[in-house]
Amino acid sequence: MNKIFTLLVFLLGTTIYAKGIDGVAAQDSNEVIKLNKQAYDNRLTSPDQTVSYANKALELAEKAGYDKGIGEAYRVRGIGNYYLNQASAAIHDYLLALSTFSKIKDLRSEAKVYNNIGNLYLDNNYASSLEYLNKSLEIALKLADKQLTGSLYLNIGNVYYRKKSFNQALNYYNKANDIFVAIKDSVNLIQALQNRGVIYFNLNQYDIAEKLLLAANKAAKERDLNKPVASTNLTLASLYIAQKRFNDAEKIVQEGQAYSQAVKDEKLESDYIYTTYQLEAKRKNYERALYYLQQIFRQDSTIYASNESNQINMLQVQFKQQAKQRENELTIQRQQNDRIKFWAVTVVAGLLLVVIALLVSNVKRKAATNTKLTELNGEVLRQKDNLDRVNHHLEEIIDERTKDLQIKNKKLSEYSSYLSHQIRGPIATLRGLMNLEKEKLVDEKECIVMMDKCVSDIDQKIIEMSEMLNDTSRAPV
What we know:
Layout: H1 2-41, H2 47-64, H3 67-83, H4 87-103, H5 107-120, H6 126-143, H7 146-162, H8 166-183, H9 186-202, H10 206-222, H11 226-242, H12 246-262, H13 266-282, H14 286-438, H15 444-470
C-alpha cells in the first residue's frame, strides 16, 4: 500500500511539473511573438530598435526551445541589419532563419525569408534578386497569402525600376497597391504610393508624381515611419528641382536629411548630398556644388569599397552558415531527445497508474467471478444429470428403431427374393416367345396372346408384392 501511495505522489508531482512547464512555455512563446512584432514594427522608424528587440526575442526563444520564434527573430534581425546597410550581417541572419523554418517545415515563413534575401540582392545582383523573389511569390500564391504577395509585387517592381523598365515596374506597383487597399495594409500602401510616385516622376508626369508622393509622405508622418518620409522627400526634392522650385526643394531636402539621420541610413544621407549638389548646380552656386561633389566622390569610393566587402562577406557567411547549421541541428536534436525522454517517463508513469487501477479492479472482478462460477458449476451439474437421462432415453429409442429396421431389412430381403423368383419365370417366357417369333416358329396371334398373358402375370405379381410391402401386420418369414 505504501508503494502504491508513493507511486501516486510521484505521478501527481510529475503531472504538475509538466503542466508548469507547458504554462511557462506558452507564456514565453507569447512574449517572443510580442518582441518579434515590436522589432518588425520599428524597421522603418528605428532599425537599431529592430535589432535590439529581435535579440531579446531570440534569447528568450532559445531558452524556451521555441523554434518558430527563433526563426522569426533571426529573420527580423536580418531586416533590421538590412535597413542599417549591414548586408553581411543580414544574410547571416536570413540563412539562419531559413535553416530553422526548413527544419520545422514552415513554408510561409520560408517564403518571407526568400523575399528578404531577394531585397538584399536588389542593389548588386538583379538576377539573384528576381530568382529569390519569384521563388517566394510562387509559394505566396500557392498559400493564397495576399499580404506577402503584395509585398513581393512591390519588390519585383523595385528590380524592374532599377533596370529602368518603368512601365513594367509600374504594373507590379499597381497590383501591389490594389492588394494593400483590399486588405487595408496601411504601411505597405504608403510604400506602394511612394514607388508609383517615383515611376511617374521618371516618366516626367510630375503632377501625378507629386500627388502620390505627398500622399505617401503625409501618411508616413502620421505613422512615424521615418525611412519612408526620408526616401519620399528625396524624390520630391528631385521633382522640385526639375520644376525649378528651388526653395521647396531646399526645404524638403533639409527635412529629409533629418529623417535619414534619425534612421542612420548612410546611403540615404549620401543620396541627399547628391540631391543638394544638383540643387546648387541648378541654382548656379557652383562653388557650393563643387563642395558637395567632392563629398559625393569620397563617399562613393567608401560605399563602393563597402559594397565589394559586403559581397565577399556574404559569400563567406554562406559557407560558415553551413557549419553553423549542422551544429544547430545537433543541438536541436539533443533538445528533442531530452523532451522525448521526459515525455517517455511521464507516459510510463501514467501507464503504471493505469496498471495499478486495473489490478485493483481485477481483484474485485475476480471475487465476483468466483461467486458466479460456483453458481454456474451447480447449474452445469444439474444440466449434466438432465443430459444423462436424455441420453439414456435416446439409447432406448435407438434400440427400438434398430430392431424395427432389422425387421424391415429382412422383410425387404424376402420380398426381393420372392420378386426375383416369381417375376423371373414370366420374363423368361416372354424372351422365349420373342425368340420363337423371330424364327417364325409360332403363329403371331398366338404369340401375342401368350405374351399378353405373361405381362398380366408380371403385373399381378407386382401388385401382390406391393400389398405385401404395405401390410404392416404381416411378419417376415
